[in-house]
Amino acid sequence: MVAKAMDDDDEEDHDVLCEWIVDACLSYFRESTLDVPKEITFNDFYYPPTHHLKLLVSGSSLYPKATQDRGTMNAFRLMIPSGDLPPFSEVPRSKASDLRIISDTEWDDYMSEIPQKAIINDGTSRFFKPADDKKQLLREIDMHLRIRHAGLRDKIKVANLHSIVVSDDAKMTIGLLLDLIPSTGDSLYSHKNSALASEYHARWKQQATDTVKQLHSHDLVWGDVHPGNIVIDTSFNAWVVDFGGGSIVEFVPRKKAGTKDGDWQGVGKIFDEWILENNHLDRRAE
């Protein structure tokens, strides 16, 4: 296991080794950290107290000193210096210490995942999108401001932008807070070839089409059209999310990415081919 970890380029074997080590230490960690709160803030997540462990084999260090911190999360990679961004005076700021993360008591995975839900001071839940890519963050904010200025916020099913999350000293931008869509699944990927996909296919296609039409009528382009960016809520309505740009070539050809034509090709690919493609094959077989 150790030999595999030391020759591991993708770090999968390294994670397996770390998990094996941590599993043996979990009881000690729990005994030594009884004062850890059930609820932590985003400030706690991005600026945590860090304790370094050193693995010894036969009295000697397993890894050279230069690689001992290989598994340590560098939180600053998940942030953008606020000075690198325009002021965006129209968008409120939320301090990281004012946002809470509700921990899952059943979750024992030591490899921290970026939280996706924030609880603000009044108890309202919001969706949290991390600021891990400057270009995408800028496009996301700009698109939401343009949607607001165009008067579309209440006309299309798009999760509204509420605030920019910053560190308590405001020097680092951590992410964005948007509407938390009450969802029956993570995205349209969860519904491919399902009974719901057959029952609500026409509605979802129409809702996505209406949203794209409204955006295009104000010279706005969705951009990253794929099933993962269509969320189905608990009332079985389709919401469009993610205006950060990018593309998945299965749905939008690279040359068409970021264009109105690309948006229409993506919507057509999703609803005319992808979502029910296995069902079409089944019918042909009959």
UniProtKB/TrEMBL annotation:
The protein's name in its UniProt record: Protein kinase domain-containing protein
InterPro entries, alphabetized: Kinase-like_dom_sf (IPR011009), Prot_kinase_dom (IPR000719)
Sample GO molecular function, one term: ATP binding
Gene3D superfamilies: Transferase(Phosphotransferase) domain 1 (1.10.510.10)
Transmembrane segments annotated in the record for this chain: none
Ranges for domain Protein kinase: 85-286
UniProt organism field: Venustampulla echinocandica
